[in-house]
Amino acid sequence: MFGTLSYKKQKRLIIFSFLLIPVALLLLFTYYPAAKLVYFSFTNWDGYSPEKPWVGLDNYREVFSNPDIFGVFAHNFAYFVMGLIQNVIAIYFAVILNSRLRGRNMFRLLLFLPYIMNGVAVAFMFGYVFDTTQGSLNLFLNSIGLTGLGETSWLGTEGLVNYSLASTGLWRFMGYNMVIYIASLQAIPSDIYEAAKIDGANAWQTFWRMTLPNMKPVIQLNLFLTVTGALEVFDLPFVLTKGGPAGASQTYVQRVVETAFAYNNYGLASAMSIILLFFVVAVVALQQFVLSRGGGSK
Predict the structure, then answer these.
(1) pLDDT tens for the chain, residues 1 to 298
(2) Rounded alpha-carbon distances, angstroms, from residue 156 to 153, 159, 178, 237, 246
(3) Would you state the torsion angle of the CA atoms of residues 86, 209, 289, 80, taken in this order, to the nearest 10 degrees?
(4) Of the four listed, 4, 37, 38, 260, which is most buried by Cβ atoms within 10 Å?
């Protein structure tokens, strides 16, 4: 069959053959469910009934007009703040562990180890850390004389619970970001550091003027992962607090899951998922615009 075809047609046929199965799987398991999700967002479907009453934009109006639904986005702010701190700490350790420090491979392993741990296991472990009476954090604070802080209910106080949960994410994912930053640092040519040293640049000038600009694409990638991760948090509050106290730690994704599986309102949950998707796209687009504008002004 191939003998009668030209080389160009054979090439196109082979490429098409290799792409057929991946594209079919992508359409079947990604785009088709996404299209169904959009359709369900305009219905009042309960998840099991064959009837799917069309309600138009009512679900979207419900999301934006009900502060109990859209307002839970404020709980995700703590994860965003901790995510930024996490990236700063990761860059700090990456710079240190990229130097000729003795035992640096062991320190890299110790800092990366939390990332490979199961998320539910990490949540249960920090449940014991944050326990009010016998938690290791309060016992430590009492042992150093901070008895006032040593009686804090870290997961039971509305103003602290989200930051306590977000700090768990910082501990778990900081090593992962650090490894990415180390790879970025190792890709920077050593010649520019030698030239900077000859020109008399100190360590801070070298880091600010040379290291950070060369790491910018990787920093943008990690900030993208930080923003999306902060908006899509689910496992930590679900395992540790179930959204408590009084819904103070409930995240937007938790609310979507609860709407779908606890209240059987799949139409509203679908609309909430679509809004989350557009919200993530908008925030990431704004982030890219700000970062690219800052880079272009230099």
Answers:
(1) 555 777 788 888 888 888 999 999 999 999 999 999 999 999 999 888 888 899 999 999 998 888 888 788 889 899 999 999 999 999 999 999 988 888 889 999 999 999 998 888 899 899 999 998 888 999 998 898 887 787 889 998 888 999 999 999 999 999 999 999 999 999 888 888 888 888 888 888 888 888 888 898 899 888 888 888 888 899 889 989 988 888 899 999 999 999 999 889 999 999 999 999 998 888 888 877 877 775 544 4
(2) 5, 9, 31, 12, 9
(3) 10
(4) 260
Structural domains in the chain (count)? 1
Q: Give me the amino acid identity at 297.
A: S
- What single DSSP character describes residue 208? I
Specify the amino acid at residue 44: N
Does some domain include residue 256? Answer: yes
Residue 271, helix vs strand vs coil: helix
Q: Is residue 96 part of a domain?
A: yes
The CA distance from 156 to 130, in Å, is 10
> For residue 236, what are the domain limits?
65-108+162-296
Question: What CATH number corresponds to the domain at position 218?
Answer: 1.10.3720.10
CB 253 within 8 A of CB 232: yes
Contact call for residues 253 and 272 (beta carbons, < 8 A): no
Find all residues with CB under 8 Å of 104, minimum gap 6, and list them. 97, 98
pTM reported for the whole predicted model: 0.83
**Strand, helix or coil for residue 223:** helix
Within a domain: residue 40?
A: no
